[in-house]
Amino acid sequence: MSETKNNEELQQEETTEEVVETAETTETEEIAVDEKDQKIAELEAKLAEEDARYLRLRADYDNLARRTRLDREAAEKYRAQSLLTELLPVLDNLDRALQIEVTTEEAASLYKGVQMVYDQLLAATEKEGLSIIPAEGESFDPNFHQAVMQEQDSEKETGIILRELQKGYQLKDRVLRPSMVSVNE
Rounded to an integer, what distance in angstroms lies between the CA atom of residue 41 and that of residue 169? Predict the structure, then answer.
């Protein structure tokens, strides 16, 4: 019986060792699974962060491309702006020369020559998109007109431009110089 008892004790010890080994293995496997889950979570967070970074970079690139395209279009549209701005005093002087009353035949032929030069210059600038801002008789608009005087005319409404003192010009939709005007009170 003692041998049977010993065998039983040995079997119990072996069973206990197996249970302990199984528990340790299960615990080790659980730790390994927890570490794997943690590692997966870390990698997923890193992937999400990289995706967000990529999307931000892509949006920045798209914005830069759009801005560059708009700048290029504006540069093309207003390429003649500096030249036309420099020519405005020339147009003013020619316009003033045409305001003079002609009394002699020599002056009339000189006047005609100045008129031809003025018309050609005006036509060339209009091809580039320059246009005269209408003023006299129009309603005052601070976007296009600069009021330098106020006068009173009871026959006209308040805010109507009575006189244009200096012509205003715009290039396409951009004002190069507002018209200097006198406005009705």
Answer: 65
pLDDT at res. 73: 86
Which position has the token pair 């110089």? Answer: 177
Element (H, E) at 183: strand 179-184
Amino acid at 17: E
The verdict on 50 and 113 lying in the same domain is no
Render pLDDT for 77-89 as a digit per residue (tens, 0 to 9).
888 888 999 999 9
Instruction: Tell me if 12 is assigned to some domain.
Output: no
Same-domain pairing of 62 and 123: no
CA torsion 148→154→160→161, rounded to 10°? -40
Over residues 27-55, the pLDDT tens digits come to: 666 667 788 889 999 999 999 999 999 99
CB neighbour class for 84 (10 Å; exposed up to 12, middle 13-18, buried from 19): buried
Q: Closest Cα partner for 114 from 95, 89, 92, 87?
A: 95
